[in-house]
Amino acid sequence: MNELVRKKLEPLPLVAIALLLLAACALPFFLSNYSTFQLTMVLVYAIALLGLNILTGYNGQISLGHGAFYAIGAYATAVLMDKFGWPYWATLPVAAAVCLLAGFLFGLPALRLEGPYLALATFALAIALPQILKYKHLEEWTGGVQGIVIMKPESPIATLFGQKMNSDRWLYFVTLAVTVLMFVIGWNLLRGRIGRALVAIRDQPVAAASMGIDNAMYKSLAFGVSAMFTGVAGALSAIVVAFVAPDSFTVFLSLSLMVGMVIGGLASIWGALFGALVVQFVPNVADHISKAAPGAIYGAMLILFMYVMPTGIVGAIRLAWGKLRRLRKS
């Protein structure tokens, strides 16, 4: 009987995912353009947080500089669209490839660093990149302090399911499609041999090396893949916002990504979605509560999150689900 129940319960996650996607497709038709834009940014941040979680949650390498890779992806897309007239969709693979290479190359010298030393090195990257983007000899490409304004893509179709398809809704669906693709890639990557190797290196690096795992290669690969995910998110943000500037990618962005990852849930694929909601909406809520001291409210909310859910939102859900199952059995 228990086996029968277990088999009946197995398809539920797939059903839940299908319902979640259906709801995600329907949402923009019930929301304003601004709310649709906010949800689009939630999807963008979810991709970035998944990338950061691959590095920190699954491989144990702490990065406080992923905002730099986010900026590289955004500028790669903006330059290709503004200077070379590329279509927005064609810039995404290029941004992914550029950030994959940049992350892999940065990860090679970073192999000598661990823990707070690696965090400090990535923090330095987050501080340095906005200044590099303002450098006068690169101003022809980056736009300097003024940044780059790009044309917001228009929807190629006028209506969908009888509803008007404006640019905000179209970009939402484009971002949703890319998000689903990146999550499928992340799921397959982390549930396979590479994912097991990353976790083994995180938990027991000496034992992992004794089993034949090339620690250096996998750690550099984790950095590259993590940067690739974050770069794709940055590219999408440039398309959605239609503007990039150095001051949009300050160190606070890197810290916000770290906050979202921790609150969403370390080493959790679905935690990226919850963390993205936190990154997008919690600062806005803090600003609405107090215009005079939004930072203080934001800090207090983060402390409350960590006190109530020390293992993140996904960890709290798992704990609550486990208690519910024990109560049902008893």
Describe what is shown at a glance.
With 330 residues, this protein is mostly helical.
Strand order of the largest sheet: 1-4
Overall number of domains: 1
Q: For the record, what CATH class applies? A: Mainly Alpha
Helix content: over 70%
Structural class label: mainly alpha
Sheet bearing the most strands, described?
2 strands, antiparallel
Q: Average the pLDDT over all residues and give the rounded result.
A: 92
Which architecture does the CATH hierarchy give at level 2?
Orthogonal Bundle
Helices and strands, in order, run as: HHHHHHHEEEHHHHEHHHH
Rg, Å, rounded: 21 Å
- Percent range for β-strand residues: under 5%
How would the blueprint of this fold be written?
Blueprint: H1 2-9, H2 12-26, H3 33-55, H4 66-84, H5 88-107, H6 115-133, H7 139-142, E1 148-149, E2 159-160, E3 163-164, H8 167-190, H9 193-203, H10 205-210, H11 215-241, E4 243-244, H12 251-264, H13 271-289, H14 294-308, H15 312-329
Antiparallel strand pairs: 1-4, 2-3
What does this molecule look like?
By secondary structure, the protein is mainly α. It has a single domain (34-329), classed as Orthogonal Bundle (ABC transporter involved in vitamin B12 uptake, BtuC), CATH 1.10.3470. The protein contains 15 helices and 4 strands. It has helices spanning 2-9, 12-26, 33-55, 66-84, 88-107, 115-133, 139-142, 167-190, 193-203, 205-210, 215-241, 251-264, 271-289, 294-308, 312-329, and strands at residues 148-149, 159-160, 163-164, 243-244. A two-stranded antiparallel sheet has the order 1-4. A two-stranded antiparallel ribbon has the order 2-3. A hairpin with a 2-residue loop joins strand 2 (159-160) and strand 3. The longest helix has 27 residues, at 215-241. It starts with a helix and ends with a helix.
